[in-house]
Write a structure and sequence with these properties.
The chain has 432 residues and is α+β, with helices and mostly antiparallel strands. It is built from ten helices and five strands; from the N terminus they run ααααααααβαββαββ. Among the domains are: 152 residues, no CATH class; 147 residues, Heat Shock Protein 90 (2-Layer Sandwich), CATH 3.30.565.10. Helix content is 63%, strand content 8%. It has a five-stranded mixed β-sheet with strand order 1-2-3-5-4. The protein is rod-shaped. 29% of the residues are buried.
Length: 432
């Protein structure tokens, strides 16, 4: 049996926006590096070596702080996508505090750098996006606002404290970027929520399908047991009881021999159910012969006849017809007290029919009790078998006038331009 598919842990699946977020972060970090180098070159070329020393040292410190904070922010994103952060986890609070400490240290160092050397103002975009990546809520707004304010002060200072546009521009850009980023975060949260809902729905559907499959398999096994083992044991019990009543009459020996034969057949059916739930001989024997053997397990004298042109029959249809014949013959033996019984197998252009008739005492089909521990599964099992193959099963019976069980199953039509192939197992046309 093939191994069942392993259920994937939802925490091991990346969110729908994980790859996009990674690419954006990579672009932001690359932009920071390029702008930082360009700003440093610009500053060094325009200022004396004495001024360069402290400013470059501060710039190097900002770069180091940026790397540490970016790594912490990346760790936060990974744990969020993998759903490993839990509010009840005491490590989560400590990690958040460490991230805040590094981020605000970076913002403070950046503020000092951009105010002292406004040439580095262009790098504020990367600082802003890093702060939004590292934090949510008030901490993100505070870090982003501090970055915009420091940039505005630095540019305003560079203009000699005269150009108001240099002061208001970074503040307005920071507010605009904050609104846009908030909108992106809300859309991303909604997308993640929808992704989680779809994943949960798929898991629930898979669980329902598994339960339905288990229920169907149980129903299938119960029908197989009822139509083979249960019916055979019931008939064997009747034969042994009859032998006990007439013992040591010679007829009792015949009843015991018949019960022994039935029990051996039950043993073969049980082994078949354990191995592959298939009917012995169904795949190789002609269908009418398999039906005759199934019926004669319970009725010594039963007429089996075939009408129409024989044709290949799918295994599942052959199996269903065999089990219906077994169950019907067992019911005739146990309940009908019939003098005569017959099985008619009919081949039609678009289907196949099976009629089981007996002239026994009959019954009222509308008064059949529901299934219980004492029985009542036979007719329901027959109908389920036929209906699962797209067919119909009807029961015609009247007390004192016998019973007819009629089943019809559709079959695919044979191509008109090819001769109707006949199966070696289904070449019999005359009554037995």
């Amino acid at each position: 049996m093939p191994a069942a598919p392993q259920r994937q842990d939802p925490s091991s699946r990346p969110g729908p926006g994980g790859r996009i977020d990674t690419r954006i972060d990579a672009v932001v970090h690359l932009g920071f590096a390029v702008l930082m180098v360009a700003s440093a070159v610009r500053y060094v070329m325009r200022h004396s070596p004495a001024d360069n020393l402290w400013t470059v040292a501060l710039a190097v410190s900002v770069c180091a702080l940026y790397v540490v904070t970016a790594l912490l922010a990346q760790h936060r994103q990974l744990t969020q996508h993998l759903q490993l952060i839990q509010r009840r986890n005491p490590m989560h609070s400590q990690q958040t505090q460490n991230r805040k400490l590094w981020m605000f240290t970076l913002v403070a160092a950046w503020a000092a750098l951009v105010i002292a050397a406004p040439s580095f103002a262009w790098c504020s975009f990367a600082i802003f996006f890093l702060s939004r990546t590292a934090f949510r809520g008030w901490a993100a707004y505070l870090a982003g606002g501090a970055t915009a304010t420091a940039t505005a002060v630095g540019l305003f200072r560079m203009s000699g404290w005269t150009d108001v546009a240099m002061l208001l521009g970074p503040l307005a850009a920071g507010a605009l970027l904050t609104l846009i980023y908030d909108k992106i975060e809300r859309d991303g949260a909604l997308q993640r929520k929808l992704f989680e809902d779809v994943t949960q729905a798929q898991e629930q559907l898979a669980a329902s399908e598994r339960k339905a499959g288990i229920a169907a398999e149980r129903e299938h096994v119960s029908r197989e047991i009822h139509d083979t083992i249960t019916q055979g044991l019931a008939s064997s019990l009747l034969l042994l009881e009859a032998a006990q009543r007439s013992w040591p009459d010679p007829a009792a020996h015949h009843e015991v021999s018949k019960a022994t034969s039935l029990l051996r057949g039950n043993l073969a059916d049980t082994r078949s159910l354990v191995h592959e739930l298939s009917a012995p001989g169904l795949e190789t024997a002609p269908l009418h012969e398999a039906l005759e053997r199934a019926a004669r397990q319970y009725l010594d004298h039963i007429l089996v006849q075939v009408t129409g042109e024989t044709r290949p029959i799918p295994p599942e249809v052959r199996h269903a017809l065999l089990r219906v014949t077994q169950s019907a013959a067992a019911n005739i033996k146990l309940h009908a007290h019939a003098n005569n019984a017959s099985v008619t197998l009919g081949y039609l252009p678009g289907g196949i029919t099976l009629d089981v008739f007996d002239d026994g005492r009959g019954f009222d089909p509308g008064a059949v009790p529901p299934p219980s521990e004492t029985g009542g599964y036979g007719l329901r099992a027959m109908r389920q078998r036929i209906e699962q193959l797209g067919g119909e099963l009807s029961v015609e019976s009247t007390p004192g006038e016998g019973t007819i069980i009629a089943a019809q199953i559709p079959l695919p039509a044979l191509p008109e331009d090819t001769p109707e192939a006949t199966s070696p197992a289904d070449t019999f046309k005359e009554p037995l």
